[in-house]
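Support case: magnesium ion complex. Customer-provided input:
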Amino acid sequence: MIKPLILAAAVLFAGGTAAAQPKVIAHRGYWTAPGSAQNSLTAFTKADSIGVYGSEIDVWLTADDRLIVNHDRVYQGTDIDMEKASAKEIMQIVLPNGKENIPSLDDYLSLVASKPDTRLILEMKSLSDLRREDLAAEKIVRALRKHKLVERTDIIAFSINACLAFKKLLPDTKIYYLNGDLPPKSIKALGLAGIDYSMGNLRRNPHWVQQAHELGLEVNVWTVDSEEDMKYFIEQGVDYITTDYPERLQALLKQ
Ligand code: MG
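Agent response - structure generated as follows:
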């Protein structure tokens, strides 16, 4: 009797492992939903309303040392540079949904704090000066502490300097590297939680997923929008998929 039981347990275990599904992260919030906009407060609310694991934002440090939430360095159709303009000037920009402006990080975190079911995936944008990156990391950590969100936030950055600045400030927080130029073993040596690489990068280096897992690291992939790509990365066994179409991914994962 024992042998069949062990076999059944092994089959169950293997099945359980294979069935581990990637968690869904809404890229720049659920901005493709009606009435939403990238990195808007609405985008976080919409992401929260469909029950994603996490919602991502991009954070800049302005010329007057404030933190604002936006993706591009220069806002499309303007000459306003996020690092060179004041927060006041930046926050006058109306988002494409016509009903809200570029938010401050403080306003964004107030909203996140009110919606406890969704994790925040916070990307700090690379800045032109490493000392300003260190300052931005300090200010972001202070803001997360103010809103009691440290435990509900994961950090991502293209800048190794920024990743290490956060690691020093928040040793227990998960920090993922975005730039795609380092193999998992280097990320492990730096003490980071994992890799958060582009689709193209992980398609070119498919062995990195397994290597990362063997090292106890996690793998996130962006920005995965087509069903074909979603299926590929589900099959690859990544831990997180970052997408502009979170409901499309959720529907696939339910099949
Ligand atoms: Mg981003």
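Residues 56, 58, 123 surround magnesium ion (CB under 6 Å).

Case will auto-close in a few days if no follow-up is received.
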